TrEMBL record:
<dbReference type="InterPro" id="IPR043128">
    <property type="entry name" value="Rev_trsase/Diguanyl_cyclase"/>
</dbReference>
<dbReference type="Pfam" id="PF00078">
    <property type="entry name" value="RVT_1"/>
</dbReference>
<dbReference type="Pfam" id="PF14529">
    <property type="entry name" value="Exo_endo_phos_2"/>
</dbReference>
<dbReference type="GO" id="GO:0071897">
    <property type="term" value="P:DNA biosynthetic process"/>
</dbReference>
<dbReference type="InterPro" id="IPR036691">
    <property type="entry name" value="Endo/exonu/phosph_ase_sf"/>
</dbReference>
<feature type="domain" description="Reverse transcriptase">
    <location>
        <begin position="489"/>
        <end position="760"/>
    </location>
</feature>
<dbReference type="GO" id="GO:0003824">
    <property type="term" value="F:catalytic activity"/>
</dbReference>
<keyword id="KW-0175">Coiled coil</keyword>
<dbReference type="InterPro" id="IPR043502">
    <property type="entry name" value="DNA/RNA_pol_sf"/>
</dbReference>
<dbReference type="InterPro" id="IPR000477">
    <property type="entry name" value="RT_dom"/>
</dbReference>
<dbReference type="InterPro" id="IPR005135">
    <property type="entry name" value="Endo/exonuclease/phosphatase"/>
</dbReference>
<feature type="coiled-coil region">
    <location>
        <begin position="330"/>
        <end position="361"/>
    </location>
</feature>
<protein>
    <submittedName>
        <fullName>Craniofacial development protein 2</fullName>
    </submittedName>
</protein>
Length: 945
């Protein structure tokens, strides 16, 4: 199926032969999902995207006339998949299979049949179940039983016995052995050794149906004359079953904000929307919040429902041309006339050539579109077009596993499973918190609302109220008074409209092939109008709450991020090793930390902070009255009460979680004297949101800290995941392993750990991480090679794509890197590798790097970029008063004794060597922005002074 034109040839044969469903073995498509080609939908299941090979693979092609009847698709493996259709009073189950060839061992064959058995368990006895595919088995002829007819072909082999055993166990019958046919209508495969004087043709493909529906099959035979470019012949069974008439469900949100890109449509909506707001009157009674909200909602949604209705998008034409399709028809006509094989071969070659030309022309046009969008500075649509051409969707699982490990396919059952999971996850015996008697807080100003709305991101999904955020930006300034009136009613009364208390959970897989509910992350879609109010509140309370958050928390804080956390950890570990001090590290992993926050404790913590009580009251009423529904395959669950956790997707959640986790760490470690001592300061933890690292100088101190953190965390509702929590000893020596215990479980001691997306190790070396980053960047380049190696895309655009999509993957965490000569060589080699692929220079050509750079019109830049970013980052942290802990880590004194001999390369030594100056000179230059800029500018000339 990966051959150009193969899928179109199959579609053509389906139309010619009147086939509505076609099973395909050995498709070679990686991943799983569905593809729409012309008007035919291909459901496929192959090897995982991460695998380097694309062997095997199965697919089912479904004609557009019955595709609406498809209920479920289940990719079980790269050899078995299940498609379920709605029929009258029952389901039709299509199981497509591809058995191991004769050279594979029996264990692989048994694994294949176990996959089919798993699919069979999902069917019901009342259903019509059809199993079809290449079974690489011969059942032979002349032996009529309840599972086969007497019109097979050849002699039975061991694989044939195994197939018949499967049929007996599942009460299936082989349909293409039931009817007397000429032998040319029985064989399904032609051997490569087949010759006119020695015919070798076998029956190894079968279509089976459960015995109770045997009479629905009217015929089953092969069509050896149908050309599909395979050594197998098409096997067709005529099965007559009535399908169920279905009405396609409408999605909840019918508003398409993309239509606002049309200025005439935008102008019409703008005018009508503001005319509506001009005519409405607001109620002033505090108890009429709901009425005022519904009035504003109606005024805003009316023009949207009228002018922004979602219409079916036109499907872009693919690269296939009418000329090629006509050549395929001619090829079939030649086959029908038994034309000379030489003519057929010539025509096949011509079709392949035309397919390549058509695909290249299509790609050229797409590249021109990308070039045009770049000249228009339309970054959004340019990157969207790039993703369409190069972005492969992540492999998705179309089923869930329940607690017993049973496969759940039906959407209604998946909804029930999700409801049960959400109820358990967010259930809590919380105690209600008393309302605040003396509310304080200034009224919400129109300017605050205007600022938030003008800075909202576009094209964000709407919440349960179906109000797009883009529509709020069409409100005229004078009409924001009405929104301000509503917000102040809510703010002073603490009463929130019902729509604002609802949220819709969408589920996103945390990893490939996520099969359980806990393997997913729930994101809350909520009202955009509520988001505006919460952003106003966030702006008011953020600075006050951040004052009490520790310097060791790098997550969800302005000016802090993963690079600060990685820098702190790596430089601290290096400096400890410089003075022969071991670092005992525990990487803590919490169980669903964001979902376990206790609301009553959170509100009580906020009451102790210096923020207005009305802000607290809004947060309290929102969290204590919120409900959620889960969206699963466009089906919505019942409303569920959310009794704990912060909402992932809410603007307040990161700040609230930081406040909550800060209280835990403060209580657990406030009297702790362990940790790494720098200039008399104890650094015993580094945090990025819920990713917590405990640091100590010995295992005893680390055990004591961990015990306290576990105890206090449990009081606040957070529990450790002892399977994912790891410990590591950063040392120069091969010390014997030491035990760290959490809740009776021994924490695994590791030599390397993935921390915030980078691989840190017990020797604090950076070469392993550099190798990983290079391979990740190489994989991204290969994924985009259709564009980066395209002949018709300009070199400037390719270079921009390289900098935008490939180099950021390579340079993630670069500010914390410490490079030796080997690291530098590997980075430069990878850079030249990308340039050679862009220029399409084969490895056999003896082209020097100097010539490659001349053709690219540039100098090597990766290493220069590393130097620039490390130096710039030094200036950034040294000039920033908020980075006191980083100043301490890089400049402070750690008590210890250096080893005799040459010192290890350190983070700071990299800069000293690159710019030929002392540490003191670097620190002086770092706080002088002008001098630092000159040093960066002089990098290319080899003079960093």
């Amino acid at each position: 199926m990966i051959e150009l034109g193969k899928s179109h040839s199959i579609i053509q044969q389906m139309e010619r032969l009147g086939v509505k469903i076609l099973g395909i073995s050995e498709s070679h498509w990686k991943g799983s999902g569905k593809k729409l080609i012309q008007d035919t939908t291909f459901y496929y299941s192959g090897s995982p995207e991460s695998d380097g090979v694309n062997y095997h693979g199965v697919a089912i092609a479904v004609d557009k006339t019955i595709n609406n009847n498809v209920k479920h698709f289940l990719p079980l493996s790269n050899r078995v998949c299940l498609l379920q259709l709605n029929a009258q009073g029952r389901h039709i189950n299509i199981i497509q299979a591809y058995a191991p060839t004769m050279d594979k061992d029996d264990e692989e064959v048994e694994e294949f049949y176990r996959d089919i058995a798993a699919a069979m368990r999902l069917t019901k006895s009342i259903d019509v179940t059809i199993v079809l595919g290449d079974f690489n088995a011969k059942v032979g002829e002349g032996s009529q039983t309840e599972v086969m007819g007497c019109f097979g072909l050849g002699e039975r082999n061991e694989r044939g016995d195994r197939l018949l055993l499967f049929c007996q166990e599942n009460k299936m019958i082989l349909t293409n052995t039931l009817y007397k046919q000429p032998k040319r209508r029985l064989y399904t495969w032609i051997s490569p050794q087949d010759k006119p004087e020695r015919i070798i043709r076998n029956q190894i493909d079968y279509i089976m149906i459960n015995q109770r529906y045997r009479n629905t099959v009217k015929s089953a035979k092969t069509y050896p004359g149908a050309y599909i470019g395979s050594d197998h012949s098409i096997l067709i069974a005529d099965v007559q079953i009535k399908l169920k008439k279905l009405v396609q469900p409408k999605s909840r949100t019918q508003i398409d904000v993309r239509k606002l890109q049309d200025l005439s449509v935008k102008g019409t909506v703008f005018q009508e929307l503001n005319e509506n707001l001009d005519t409405i009157s607001m109620q002033h009674d505090a108890g009429q919040v709901e009425e005022n909200w519904l009035t504003i909602k109606s005024a805003l949604l009316g023009p949207c429902n009228k002018h922004l209705k979602r219409t079916k998008a036109k499907r872009e034409k693919d690269w296939m041309t009418e000329q090629i399709l006509r050549l395929m028809e001619v090829r079939q006509e030649l086959r029908d006339r038994n034309a000379d094989k030489t003519k057929l071969k010539e025509l096949n070659n011509k079709i392949r050539y035309e397919c390549r030309q058509a695909k290249e022309q299509w790609l050229k046009e797409k590249c021109e579109e990308i070039e045009h969008l770049q000249t228009l500075h339309d970054a959004h649509n340019m990157h969207k077009k790039i993703r369409e051409l190069t972005g492969s969707k992540k492999q998705t699982t179309h089923y869930l596993l329940n607690e017993c490990g049973d496969i759940i396919v039906e959407t209604d059952k998946q909804v029930k499973l999700w409801e049960k999971y959400i109820e358990q996850l967010f259930d809590d015996d919380r105690v209600n918190v008393e309302d605040i008697e003396t509310p304080t807080g200034p009224e919400i100003l129109k300017d605050e609302i205007s600022y938030v709305i003008n800075n909202m991101k576009k094209r964000k999904a709407a919440g349960p109220d179906e109000m797009p955020g883009d529509v709020l930006q069409l409100i005229e300034e004078k009409h924001l008074d009405k929104l301000a009136h509503l917000f102040n009613q809510v703010y002073t009364s603490g009463i929130l409209p019902v729509d604002w208390l609802k949220s819709t959970f969408i589920t996103l897989p945390k990893k490939q092939n996520a099969k359980k509910c806990e393997d997913h992350r729930t994101i809350s879609l909520m009202s955009h109008v509520l988001k505006v109010l919460l952003k106003v509140i966030h702006k008011r309370i953020n600075k006050k709450l951040e004052e009490n958050i520790s310097e060791t928390q790098f997550g969800f804080r302005n000016g802090f991020g993963t690079r600060e956390a990685l820098f702190a950890y790596n430089v601290l570990a290096q400096r400890c090793l410089d003075v022969n001090k071991n670092v005992y590290v525990c990487f803590i992993d919490y169980n669903k930390a964001f979902d376990k926050v206790r609301h009553n404790r959170l509100i009580n913590i906020l009451k102790e902070e210096n923020i207005d009580t009305r802000d607290i009251q809004i947060i309290k009423n929102l969290y204590f009255n919120q409900t959620a529904e889960i969206s699963v395959n466009s089906e919505i669950s019942k409303e569920l009460k959310i009794k704990r956790g912060v909402r992932q997707g809410c603007v307040l959640s990161p700040l609230l979680f930081n406040v909550y986790s800060e209280r835990i760490m403060a209580e657990a470690l406030e009297e702790e004297v362990g940790g790494i001592v720098i200039n008399g300061t104890h650094i015993n933890n580094l945090r990025y949101a819920d990713d917590t690292v405990l640091l100590a100088e010995n295992m005893e101190d680390l055990q004591g800290m961990l015990n306290k953190v576990i105890r206090i965390s449990e009081e606040y509702g957070l529990t450790l995941n002892t399977k994912k929590t790891k410990c590591m000893i950063v040392t120069k020596r091969n010390n014997p392993p030491e035990q760290l215990i959490a809740g009776g479980d021994i924490i695994e001691q590791v030599g390397a750990y993935t921390y915030l997306g980078t691989r840190v190790n017990s020797s604090a070396e950076y070469l392993p991480e550099i190798k990983i980053r290079i391979e990740k960047a190489r994989a991204a380049f290969v994924n985009m090679r259709s564009l980066l190696s395209a002949r018709d895309l300009g070199l400037e655009t390719k270079t921009r794509l390289l900098k935008c999509y490939i180099f950021p993957i390579l340079l993630y965490g670069v500010e914390a890197w410490t490079l030796n000569k080997e690291c530098e060589k590997r980075l430069q080699a990878f850079e030249m590798w990308t340039y050679r692929r862009i220029l399409r220079i084969p490895w056999t050509d003896r082209v020097t790097n100097v010539e490659v750079l001349r053709r690219m019109g540039k100098q090597v830049e990766i290493l220069e970029e590393v130097k620039k970013r490390k130096l710039t980052y030094l200036g950034h942290i040294m000039r920033g008063p908020k980075y006191k802990i980083l100043h301490l880590i890089i400049q402070g004194k750690i008590v210890g004794k250096r080893s005799v001999g040459r010192r290890r390369i350190s983070w700071l030594r990299n800069l000293r060597d690159w710019f030929s100056c002392s540490s003191q000179d670097l620190f002086k230059a770092a706080i002088n922005k002008v001098r630092l800029t000159l040093m960066v500018a002089n990098l290319r000339h080899g003079d960093g002074t």
